[in-house]
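Hi P.,

Sorry for the delay on this. The queue was packed all week, but I finally got your sequence through. Input first:
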Amino acid sequence: MNEAARQWNAPPGRLELASDEVHVWRASLQAPAMVVQRLRTLLSAEEATKANRFYFERDRNHYIVARGLLRTLLGRYLAVEPETIIFGYNEYGKPEMQFPLIDPRLQFNVSHSHELALFAFSYVRELGVDVEYMRTNIEYDDLARHSFSPNERAVLVGLPPEVKQQAFFNCWTRKEAYIKARGMGLSLNLALFDMSLIPGEPIALLHSREDPREVTRWRFYELAPGPGYAGALAVEGQEWALHCWQWQEW
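Then the structure:
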């Protein structure tokens, strides 16, 4: 399934995540002050300290909402109190749960940009999600020189101006989702693999010079977070169903 997920549904009353499912949630980071205060009480001391480092209140509140909502959703999937969850990090900085430890392991990933956040969940399967607000005040070709593979840059440069912005953010979000799913972040050389990027064409990992088997190891899905945003999901394996939920509690 390569078509974009354009329908964000109301979640079911009873939240269940099957082993062959992936859930992606979309949420606004623009929460009322009362909600921000409540979510702040769920944060760990480390998270609260990080929140306090933000100079602008808007950025601080967005961090609190994103982190607090992650804990809230994990708590619902695991049937535990959100504030009891303990996070750890792998050697590359990707967050993972240290408590509670369950089998099969619940995988999760988070991305936020501007006023939106995406949260992805699955059991056992590694996954990565990315959302980006499509800014217009950047030089796409220049930025692509540092972040895209030679093949991706060649495709981008050859596109007409009216589709270049969408193509750039298609590639950007797909590469981000992939390296987040791999759990390696920017330690994975971005020039080692090629993503599709032309608007309207199927989303896919086209080539991997690191390991050709990567092309069939992962399945990708284009997400449509909302007007002015681009999004992508990368999930290990092929046999799974995607459900997209809209957070509706503010």
